[in-house]
Design a protein that fits this description.
The chain contains three helices and six strands; from the N terminus they run αβββββαβα. By secondary structure, the protein is α/β, with parallel strands linked by helices. A hairpin with a 2-residue loop joins strand 3 and strand 4.
Length: 153
Amino acid sequence: MKTNANRLRRKTRAWPALLLFVAALAVSAAPAEASTGGASTADSGTPVGSEIAFAPMQWAGATWYGPGLYGHRTACGQTLGPETIGVAHRSLPCGTTVKFVYHGHSIVTQVIDRGPYSRGNAWDLTNGARQLLGFEGSGPIRYAVALQYARHR
């Protein structure tokens, strides 16, 4: 009887320690900053942020923005240009790491702005992010928020 109780106690103590370890890894994994304004990768090579744990993939509406705003500062303090890679979201904190998948292409980038301001969409992709994904116009896109930020949604 005592051995089973001891084994059960050890197992229940191991889960919080494992979860704490995974959370520490996710928080300590600092995404690389690209000169374009956010961490990002295309399908080729090892993705930046591949060591980051993400929430399950979800679907949401997305648009893209940029041409009339190039040269202006984003809500997170970056200067927007045609090659800037990032996304806008209404409520996630600046710097939130997000993974996007669209028609076989994927990127890992960060929230760099507020928006979108179009009805029914959750994300605004910069032109650089749009090009990497092959995203045209507007429509549904798959995304996953890094676990350390997932609670803010």
